[in-house]
Design brief:
The complex is a heterodimer of chains A (390) and B (134). Chain A has 390 residues and is of the alpha+beta class. Chain A contains 7 helices and 26 strands. Helices cover 17% and strands 32% of the residues of chain A. In chain B, a hairpin with a 4-residue loop joins strand 2 and strand 3. The chains are: A alpha+beta (390), B alpha+beta (134). Chains A and B meet through strand 3, strand 15, strand 20, strand 26 and helix 7 of A and helix 3 of B.
């Protein structure tokens, strides 16, 4: 009879220091050597990791109250606007918001990195003043120790697969996929592929609301499905989507994070973004879990997209495997094209290894999702219509 | 045969002189121009200079006579390993493949000898870890 395991059973093994934990890279060879059934018996947890620019990231902050108090209407952190349309001293700083004085050289992502690094941040705020909050402006300095809550809440992270970007036009273009050289001068890709969390659990069996994760060097949680969640994306026979599909909304305490795993990014002539390190453990519940998680770069495909076309629907130049992408060259229309990653495989590996150590040392326990994501939903476009047409 | 990689800065008065021609004709050198930039104020030339060591020295002396400022190119590009996250974005714009990343360790490698100082990597690096100082 096929082996099955429970979250409780695996957590008990972690508690006793007996859990067998391997990374999503290591499971590939284990399955090759002993097969799915034996691997399911032997292994308890498979750890994944990814470290890539994830624009849809930001942090909620509570500043505490000044004397006399202020109901902050407009807020700037190191000259980067934060959203303050919340209660008096709450704000949200988004990664892609740009500095009003430095432009693209410094953005919300840099504020987040500086907060993690423990640096002092200039806080400036304006208000209209009320009877209960009479102060109309404030300039002061804060850091992560003076603030009450500071937590990352990222609406869309850890994309399950992503496009390969090329440029068919005659000029260099600057995108969130990096600098794309003219006439297919290069191709960029952005995924941890065989190490990526959602590639290894393609139907979200163990990754759902409440799953405990590695986030930026701290323990965090999956808060919700990510925005633009698109489970109905075209999939290969192994269940892995062939283009962007599932996403995750993640939450975690910024004060516990490290700049080794959260870094500000600047994409030239595009703007700022945030490199986010995410690692998710996959419990070995049964053979299906192991079979799916043993997927390797040869069996994971992405779609080549022409980013020089400025329409929503961009032409495709076919599919290519991550093994080909990682070889450094792919062929498009008979031309050899140099490939380059935008996400760090080296860091992804380090995250999967770190999470593995945490679990082996009993510092990290698995949390079963409180609720799983629905596979029955679609990702809708935004149509420009009159009120009568909607 | 010796080889030197140089960055030459031409002052305004030398822009119109056929200096590279003289390096070939008078000093028997093989210049390989990697990158060139001329505007109304100054000219910059990045070149590999091949020839006998002695002739290269003479050629450099000739350049100096014409007030051409010379820098050894090899020392001037630096990657701050503390800032670099080994993403590999820079490798996508590095046509001569001086910057590379890949198996086994997926750490960024830089080969000085292949660099042509096009500077595309500098703005492409998302964490501003690559610096070029002329």
């Amino acid at each position: 009879m096929a082996v099955t395991k429970t979250y409780e059973g695996i957590n008990e093994k972690i508690r006793r220091g007996e859990a067998v934990v391997v990374t999503a890279e290591e499971i590939i060879d284990i399955v090759k050597d002993v097969g799915v059934a034996k691997a399911t018996e032997k292994v308890d947890v498979i750890t994944t990791g990814t470290f890539g620019p994830m624009c849809s990231s930001g942090a909620f902050i509570n500043f505490g109250h000044s004397d006399p108090p202020i109901k902050m209407t407009k807020v700037w952190l190191n000259d980067v606007p934060a959203y303050a349309g919340l209660a008096a001293v709450d704000a949200y700083i988004g990664a892609t918001e740009l500095s009003e004085t430095q432009g693209m050289a410094y953005g919300g992502a840099h504020v987040i990195e500086d907060l993690i690094a423990g640096k002092n941040i200039k806080l400036e705020s304006k208000a209209y003043g009320t009877d209960c909050y009479p102060r109309k402006e404030i300039i002061t300095y804060v850091n992560k120790n003076t603030l009450n809550e500071v937590y990352l809440f990222n609406p869309r992270n850890a994309y399950q697969n992503y496009a390969v970007a090329v440029n068919s036009s005659a000029r260099t273009i600057y995108t969130y996929m990096g600098t794309l050289l003219p006439r297919f001068g290069n191709a960029t890709y952005c995924n941890a592929s065989q190490l990526s969390p959602l590639i290894n659990d393609p139907y979200y069996r163990t990754i759902g609301i409440g799953t405990r994760i590695f986030l930026g060097g701290a323990q965090g949680y999956v808060a919700w499905q990510g925005t633009q969640f698109n489970p109905k994306q075209v999939r290969g026979e192994n269940g892995v989507p062939l283009a962007p599909a599932g996403t995750l909304a993640l939450i975690g305490n910024l004060k516990d994070m490290s700049t080794e795993f959260i870094r500000a990014a600047i994409f030239h002539k595009y703007g700022t973004s945030l490199y986010v390190g995410v690692g998710i453990p996959i419990p070995v519940l049964d053979e299906d879990i192991v079979e799916k998680a043993s997927v390797s770069d040869k069996e994971i495909y992405s779609t080549i997209i022409d980013y020089s076309i400025t329409q929503r629907s961009k032409p495709s130049f076919g599919r290519v495997s991550y093994a080909e992408l990682r070889s450094g060259k792919i062929e498009i229309n008979g031309k050899k094209v140099r490939t380059a990653p935008i996400s760090s495989y080296n860091k992804a590996r380090k995250i999967a290894e770190t999470l593995k150590e945490w679990i082996k040392q009993g510092k990290f326990y698995l949390q079963q999702p409180i609720e799983n994501f629905s596979l029955d939903q679609t990702f809708k476009p935004l149509e420009i219509v009159n009120e009568e047409e909607i | 045969m010796a080889k030197r990689k140089l960055v030459l800065h031409f002052p305004e008065e030398s822009i119109e002189k056929p200096i590279t021609y003289h390096l070939v004709k008078d000093y028997d050198l093989i210049p390989n121009i990697l990158r060139a930039h001329i505007d109304e104020n100054e000219g910059t030339l990045v070149m590999d200079l091949k020839g006998s060591a002695e002739q290269i020295e003479k050629g450099i002396a000739f350049l100096k006579e014409h007030n051409v400022r010379i820098q050894e190119a090899v020392k001037d590009i630096t990657i701050d390993r503390d800032l670099c996250v080994d993403c590999g974005a820079c490798t996508g714009v590095c046509r001569p493949e001086a910057l590379t990343i890949g198996p086994e360790d997926w750490k960024l490698d830089f080969d000085n000898d292949k660099c042509i100082f096009c500077e595309l990597c500098i703005n492409t690096c998302p964490v501003r870890a690559i610096k070029l100082t002329f």
